[in-house]
Design a protein that fits this description.
Number of strands: 11
Strand content: 15-25%
Number of helices: 12
Strand order of the largest sheet: 1-2-3-4-7-8-9-11
Mean pLDDT: 95
Order of helices and strands: EHEHEHEHHEEEHEHHEHHEHEH
Structural class: alpha/beta
Largest sheet: 8 strands, parallel, barrel
Shape: globular
Helix content: 40-55%
Length: 336
């Protein structure tokens, strides 16, 4: 199992930290995750609400690239219907070049109504827009002139001058909300990414998603399709809230107020308490042994890449750093 870090970068105006403070803390945490040996650090893209304060993940990740050496720099996810696909291809290729080939790219079609309203994109069009944008981006990354005749995009002789350092393209995940979508992503030979907090009742609901993804992989008609990767590199990634302390009692006392603040700010998602999330298996919290047991349940579902959501509800940096350090030192080795 691989372990990365994930940040929604939720912000609370009038709270204990300014936006500038929030971004500085985020960069410090990316640097720490690099030192601790995490696989990647992923940032969510959100717009028009304090739900998430990073509208352009590549900007923050480019800054992080100058402060880190090894860690993958991830976008989770680039909402393709909101972007010109050629600009998205250039922007992410530039980040891959600047970082020495460390871009890890998640892509999705979006799910927040206020973001569709803000960009004037009809939700009914999101799937078509996503499919076209992804095809254009993957084709553009070849660096050769091409034509495209779609419903939403028409291109003639398009060619981008900056292509990714990683060839044929950076690692790619497709974000999903429904189990049936996992089969479609698998059939395309691509990895899948999800946030169980928003889509699952319990951790056990991850098993059918992983099964559908494997079934899709097995049914692939064209293993060499654009964007597909070698079977051993395809994975199911899931983002889970996590907090590791010296004991289960300490973990609750130290993290529950921040989790409650985070849950209270979530738009459109069912709001659940610390106990409800803990019982569901969708919260990794406790001492290292307890979190290891919780992770074993996740691993049994077929998830093989866990993204740890460790900074939520304006949690102070020292607490985030202590939790991350305990995870790297005392939890991750249980799965090596």
């Amino acid at each position: 199992m691989r372990f990365s870090v994930f940040s929604v970068t939720d912000h609370y105006p009038g709270g204990p930290a300014s936006l500038a403070d929030r971004y500085a803390q985020l960069l410090d945490e990316i640097s720490l995750a690099d030192e601790l040996g995490f696989s990647a650090f992923f940032l969510a893209e959100h717009h028009f609400h304090e739900y998430g304060a990073v509208p352009a993940p590549s900007v923050v990740l480019a800054a992080a690239a100058t402060r880190t050496q090894r860690i993958g720099l991830g976008v989770a996810v680039s909402v393709l219907p909101f972007h010109d696909p050629l600009l998205a291809a250039e922007e992410h290729a530039l980040l891959d070049q600047l970082s020495g080939g460390r871009l890890q790219l998640g892509v999705g079609s979006g799910y927040l109504q206020h973001e569709f309203d803000g960009f004037g994109v009809a939700p009914a069009e999101k799937r078509d827009r996503f499919d076209e944008a992804l095809q254009i981006m993957l084709t553009a990354w070849r660096g050769e002139p091409f034509d495209f005749d779609g419903r939403h995009h028409k291109l003639t002789g398009a060619r981008i001058a900056v292509t990714p350092l990683q060839r044929p393209h950076p690692p790619l995940w497709v974000a999903i909300l429904r189990a049936e979508a996992a089969r479609h992503v698998g059939a395309a030979g691509r990895s899948v990414m999800l946030i169980p907090y928003a889509t699952c009742d319990t951790a056990d609901d991850l098993a059918p998603i992983a099964q559908q993804h494997r079934a899709g992989l097995a049914s692939r008609a064209d293993p060499g399709a654009p964007g597909a990767v070698e079977p051993g590199a395809v994975e199911v990634a899931a983002a889970l809230h996590a907090y590791v302390s010296t004991s289960p009692v300490a973990a609750r006392a130290e993290s529950e107020p921040y989790l409650d603040r985070y849950v209270g700010s979530r738009l459109y998602a069912r709001r659940r308490s610390y106990d409800e999330l803990l019982d569901s298996g969708l919260l990794l919290a406790g001492d290292p042994d307890m979190v290891g047991t919780q992770l074993a349940r996740i691993a049994a579902t077929g998830v093989d890449h866990v993204l740890l959501l460790v900074n939520f509800g304006a949690m102070p940096h020292d607490q985030v750093a202590a939790s991350l350090t305990r995870f790297a030192r005392d939890v991750a080795p249980q799965f090596s």
